[in-house]
């Protein structure tokens, strides 16, 4: 009987919570909306639209407007895409400020930009049935509305005046500002741009309405037509149009993250038309019809990222792909471009490596405006050889007896039937290609003997039996090891969990937070004294290396206690199951924070640099057993709710005895952050972390990745090279010239750059300790002039 009552209570309890989460009426000075798991929102009178918080994952929320009465809660407007709100944030009306979004600590994340007159008369906020969210006076005069501040979507009854801008979001699930936008220009044109801040360069515009005049408006009427009209109501140009559409449909028109403007409809469930699909349907021709061929920029990447190419799918959507031999820069965003997977051709005059390269053919493909040379070519083979002999040539296009050479980075890539030429993609042949050793006779003899033996069926059968036995022994040995718990020093003082406990805590490993080389991290909640979220790392790889990784991580971080290290709460060491339980870091990785669409403040970056330096100083000098992390990079620095930086992922860590300063080990870490001694068979010390921190510090100063092949200026492709040049030339301001906060603090910028240059010295003995570096960053000691070195840059 008790279990039945409990079951009824479990069903009934969510009902009042849901009722509280969605409220009708107005938002006034006396109430507010809170970001939590229930997606707190304010409904329009009909309930068709909602204003409030949408959960975006990892404990962060988007203040938005969406369609409420359909299963897919499609967002049509957002306030803080560039600055997501953590759990517990609030939006409320504040006198003399307007509508304000604040985080749990009261810090302002976004506010409505009201005039002084508007602030004086402000009385309430309301969600209307048109999808417009308004701030109004007591006499119901509209003081501010979302329709006049569009993001990427417009709705029926909405109209935009001259100067209005609509900006696409960064990606499908990232609502920060992307690079595509359209604008109603003073010359009467609706113009689409492929760059976020165009310089009136014609190549920045990839579509225009060709409607000269003044005083035009963009209007989305209730009958389903998006058009440009004159002030007197005359329709100058129809952008999209839907015919025979009834009031039983929702509509929206959106500039999507791929740069294409599309018009969608969705049936209202109460009046579902027979045969109409239940989801959103694109009901008009896309604008432009083929963005792959519409964008041809003099400066810029084109429809897709640099070194990639665009193709139009059967659904008329662009697809961004890498040529053979190239891979995505960002596996989560195909529009961010590609990078070579192989070493580029040597340009040394004495050895051009021409025999090490061949070509892959791609018909109907081109990268227009990436040419640096062209010449008459009688044959395709002639074009191949011309590119092979030119170390700068990455791609050759053969078209109508002409050979066009192109070098990296490649831009405006497209594969389309309208392209007549054939692309010849240069790639490095495998190093496994056979080479003469000078022992031809001996090798030939061995080959003949081997052939005779292998031709014998008796020999083959014996060989197969031997292989089968060895494989069987290997599996038995491995399974025996895996069935035994890893021996971990119990003195580390962390809690142990059963596998079942962690399954329940993560809801069967439902919400993934991230993925690494040895396992996957999931979000969970423990039924214990820990009331907050936790991060559970599941080591899924059943290899000897993953076993060692588990031991290293538990021992390394279990013995530490510092505010700038992620805290290990416990682990599971049950049978074949290996799991680690960490404190939950609600603001994700430094990589996402630093390299996203919006730039973090200079002063926040200063704090993060000092946080990481203090954490490393503790690992190197203050632990019972000194620890070399071996993989310092932005992806392994996590940020908590207050944006305090903490070092994580000790899977590659190397432990030292108290009296030990150096060790020998195989190469560990991530390319681009590795110190030179990893590749020189030298003893490894804590100075490898110092080197990695130096790369990280330059990235924090300039707010960009160390390697940026799409950079328009060749000298800026490798950031530390550029930083060294700027320091050497006395032009450090160039590194932060677009950052007003950092530019006004140029003395500290100089100190940080000098500190970074000390960190990345090729000779480990010249690099300071992390304790000394922390003092340099904090200004406690003077930073001496770093040595002039021509070699450390090339080792990056």
TrEMBL record:
Indicate where this protein resides in the cell. Membrane
Q: What SMART domains would the database entry show?
A: B_lectin, S_TKc
Q: Which reaction does it catalyse?
A: L-seryl-[protein] + ATP = O-phospho-L-seryl-[protein] + ADP + H(+); L-threonyl-[protein] + ATP = O-phospho-L-threonyl-[protein] + ADP + H(+)
| Domain Bulb-type lectin: from-to ranges | 24-148
Q: How does it sit in the membrane?
A: Single-pass type I membrane protein
Name the EC number(s). Answer: 2.7.11.1
Q: Name one GO cellular component term.
A: membrane
The molecular function terms of the Gene Ontology recorded here are: ATP binding; carbohydrate binding; protein kinase activity; protein serine kinase activity; protein serine/threonine kinase activity
Chain segments annotated as transmembrane = 446-472
Keywords (A to Z) from UniProt: ATP-binding, Disulfide bond, EGF-like domain, Glycoprotein, Kinase, Lectin, Membrane, Nucleotide-binding, Receptor, Serine/threonine-protein kinase, Signal, Transferase, Transmembrane, Transmembrane helix
Residue stretches making up the Protein kinase domain? 507-793
> Sorted alphabetically, which SUPFAM superfamilies does this protein's record hold?
alpha-D-mannose-specific plant lectins, Protein kinase-like (PK-like)
Domain of life, per lineage: Eukaryota
Q: What class of enzyme is it?
A: transferase
Q: Where is the signal peptide?
A: 1-21
Q: Which InterPro entries match?
A: Bulb-type_lectin_dom, Bulb-type_lectin_dom_sf, G-type_lectin_kinases/EP1-like, Kinase-like_dom_sf, Prot_kinase_dom, Protein_kinase_ATP_BS, Ser/Thr_kinase_AS, SRK-like_kinase
The family this protein is said to belong to: Belongs to the protein kinase superfamily. Ser/Thr protein kinase family.
Among PANTHER family, the record links this protein to: G-TYPE LECTIN S-RECEPTOR-LIKE SERINE/THREONINE-PROTEIN KINASE SD2-5 (PTHR47976), RECEPTOR-LIKE SERINE_THREONINE-PROTEIN KINASE (PTHR47976:SF47)
Entry protein name:
Receptor-like serine/threonine-protein kinase
Query: What species was this sequence derived from?
Result: Eucalyptus grandis (Flooded gum)
Highest classification ranks of the organism: Eukaryota, Viridiplantae, Streptophyta, Embryophyta, Tracheophyta
